[in-house]
């Protein structure tokens, strides 16, 4: 290279090196919103909540091996988690593609063409060489390279936005994992509740059949009336009529669990239709602090990542207003004969920077920047709404959990009284001291209270699951499963 060209290149490159790395636009900072110091409502009796670290394997606190086994399979089999994993890979690929725009690019091309020049076209203005033919072969071989210096960070902001989108995809998968395990646990609790109500109903049907036999015997002996027989038979038939609805609900819940595990209908029937006791509530439930929610709950983290991406896009739109320089070079050969394709005299090359200065874009750049700023504000408001909703869900779940335990205690007391009333009414009827209507009424009250107690137990369990879901703990199982089975 000649000395003058070297000095010129140095004079141009040094200022460029000084401004390279300058990134325009706003830098992202984690948003902040004042948080309450503690949760507002806690149970006074029964299962207690306290400000401890969230149990990320909370389903194990129910001490139910079947539930634990289902969750272990959920991480490997759930289709929503597999779809979310592919979205993470898509986001990672987009980030890599965006980053590649800031690296040097190189391409090679080779071509051959047989051409004939027009004697009436532009070449007629030049005098051709004597005996020159207007028909010729043209061989072309070019290695081209370019490098966008990204002086003001447009490409870097784009990479930052794609990286934030990848973080959002990871958070979205965690949200899907949390939703899946919560739905599975809820369906499982409801299944055991339905099975408990079915067992209660069947045991009461047995009692009703015993009572009907007693009434018929008394009627045969002339002690009871036809009305007593009809009342006893009607009560038994009424109880039996409730079985089909419970059996239908059981089948639907088994299928719901099967869908979460990507199983066809009835695939889990043999495994789950055998009744089991309703899982007991844990003695204590750690709920952490409200400030922990922004670091743990997936939907809040996803909204924060979307805000980060929107902020980076503002920087990318801002960089479009500034000049940009691309270093480009071409080297190759051009010849009329294939034998001269790689000959030294056939070489050609060009090298030099290209300066691109936006002068007039018809308002496109201004509109794009305004659009990105509005999208950033939208993302911030979405984050704020998501966090407020998260706090609300936790508070509602804690209140519902405490209230359900109070209802469980009161219903348990009512069950004791109804059981005693039914026993007394049955004995008095056997002794002829009262009519059968009292037996029917007390038996109906007993059945209603037993069913209500099982339903409240189910509600307490599902409310606790909702509380765990609102707290944002429980998606870790999917992380382990994906590392073992990518």
TrEMBL record:
What topology in the membrane does the UniProt record assign? Lipid-anchor
Spell out the Pfam families in the cross-references: OEP
Signal sequence, renumbered to the chain = 1-17
Keywords noted in UniProt: Lipoprotein, Membrane, Palmitate, Signal, Transmembrane, Transmembrane beta strand
Q: Which compartments does it reside in?
A: Cell membrane
Q: Which InterPro entries match?
A: MdtP/NodT-like, OMP_efflux
User: Has UniProt tagged this entry with the keyword Mitochondrion?
Assistant: no
Which is a Gene Ontology cellular component entry for this protein? plasma membrane
Q: Does the keyword Signal apply?
A: yes
MF GO annotations:
efflux transmembrane transporter activity
- The principal localisation class reads membrane
NCBIfam families for this protein:
outer_NodT
Family assignment from sequence similarity = Belongs to the outer membrane factor (OMF) (TC 1.B.17) family.
PANTHER family assigned: OUTER MEMBRANE CATION EFFLUX PROTEIN, OUTER MEMBRANE PROTEIN-RELATED
Name listed for the protein in its UniProt record:
Efflux transporter outer membrane subunit
